[in-house]
Design goal:
mainly beta
Length: about 70
């Protein structure tokens, strides 16, 4: 499965940073965060299947977490 990660400081995830991780990588470090701000992170997995000569992506549900940077 491939992971799709998105993080932003807006609740609606507009103008967020999007990252795609292959299954060989299981960690992703978010950098350049400002202190005393709320950030929202969401993650979902998807697979790519070969169907009748074409490709098809099947996505999982988004998991959303709210984080506050203290330091």
């Amino acid at each position: 499965a491939i992971l799709n990660i998105s993080n932003t400081y807006k609740k609606n995830f507009k103008k967020g940073k999007k990252v795609f991780l292959q299954k060989s990588k299981s960690r992703y470090k978010v950098s350049n965060l400002k202190t005393q701000k709320n950030y929202y992170v969401r993650i979902r997995a998807y697979r790519i299947y070969q169907v009748y000569g074409g490709t098809n992506k099947i996505y999982g549900q988004w998991i959303v977490k709210n984080c506050r940077i203290e330091r």
